[in-house]
Amino acid sequence: MTTQRVTVLGAGGWGTALALCAHRTGCQVTLWARRPEAAQELQQQRENRAYLPGVALPASLKVTSDLAGSLQADLLLVVLPSLGVPEMLTLLPPDRPLVLCAKGLAPGGEPLSELAARTHSHLAVLSGPNLAGEIAQGLPAATVVASRDPHLAQAAQQALMSASLRIYTSSDVLGVELGGVLKNVIALAAGMVDGLQLGDNAKAALLTRGLAEMRRYLSANGAQEATLYGLSGLGDLIATASSPQSRNRAAGEALAQGRPLPGKVVEGLRTAALLDQWAQQTGQPMPIAHAVTQVAQGTWSPHEGLRWLMERGAKSELE
Ligand SMILES: NC(=O)C1=CN([C@@H]2O[C@H](COP(=O)(O)OP(=O)(O)OC[C@H]3O[C@@H](n4cnc5c(N)ncnc54)[C@H](O)[C@@H]3O)[C@@H](O)[C@H]2O)C=CC1
Ligand SMILES: O=C(CO)COP(=O)(O)O
């Protein structure tokens, strides 16, 4: 197999971890950072102190802020927060293979893979239970790359799969993408359960009903239900809703305890509001997204959100 050239666009925690994954498999890796000062710091310090402290970057991993010079690659991994992806797409050649790695929706609520498909012809998404710090340290993990083009999914699999990271392929692009997007909302709510010390039964009930809410949205949008119960759905829900490392879970805990949010990327906050809007437009029930939105916007206290969720009308489980 010829060595693949992989460029990772976005030098945050997840971009840096994925660059290390591709480096471990022997790819020629370029890590692109938006700010020249950030690229220079990473290049010199050989550590991403802002986003992934304590993990050494190998000398042969190239870091740059030169976007044009980074695009001659076999695979471009787009690893920005979701709000930055639409603009980045306008700068990327339409025929270059892209792997979208963000876990959020476009500003209007559209899945990023659908937005990208309007301009780009070779697309994959990568999503799974992948807390960046653990992946960077080489702790064992698994994830999914989905593409309608099996050759592209296999190319991404070869570029990233190592003894510490199993990569599964899928053709359900929307299902894999949406699992990672929606679990952030449930992780925010799980953080609120933790912050209010509501107990283990409450957490189990929330995660299970959260999965039902995710299923409703995935099915209505044409994703495969089986994908929801895979790594990118249930798997990532378990990791994010239970981990002290998750920013979404931590933000929920802070909201519940009346503490300020820590100023990190919390994708679930915007996603909750978009899901709540979608629920109002379609009449589909998304009660957890609604409660999270009301609490995050300060309209309800966390206890009011809890009471509203518990006192809704009686239902059958499979409704
Ligand atoms: N950190 C994690 O464990 C995981 C994160 N993700 C997802 O990956 C995406 C990126 O997250 P992280 O790397 O964790 O974020 P981060 O907050 O660690 O880093 C974000 C990076 O993107 C840069 N950036 C922000 N806006 C940009 C723009 N418009 N253009 C260029 N660069 C820009 C920032 O300067 C920073 O370097 C998010 O959607 C997140 O949900 C997915 C899996 C795991
Ligand atoms: O998606 C993640 C792990 O799979 C990271 O979650 P947070 O964005 O909540 O830190």
From TrEMBL:
Q: Which residues bind NADPH?
A: 14, 34-35, 51, 103, 132, 247, 265, 267
Give me the reactions it catalyses. Answer: sn-glycerol 3-phosphate + NAD(+) = dihydroxyacetone phosphate + NADH + H(+); sn-glycerol 3-phosphate + NADP(+) = dihydroxyacetone phosphate + NADPH + H(+)
Short name of any one Pfam family annotated for the protein: NAD_Gly3P_dh_N
Looking up Gene3D superfamilies in the UniProt record yields: N-(1-d-carboxylethyl)-l-norvaline Dehydrogenase, domain 2, NAD(P)-binding Rossmann-like Domain
| Major location category of this protein | cytoplasm
Any idea what this protein is called?
Glycerol-3-phosphate dehydrogenase [NAD(P)+]
Q: What NCBIfam families does the record tag this protein with?
A: PRK00094.1-2, PRK00094.1-4
The Glycerol-3-phosphate dehydrogenase NAD-dependent N-terminal domain, residue ranges: 6-152
**Function (record text):** Catalyzes the reduction of the glycolytic intermediate dihydroxyacetone phosphate (DHAP) to sn-glycerol 3-phosphate (G3P), the key precursor for phospholipid synthesis.
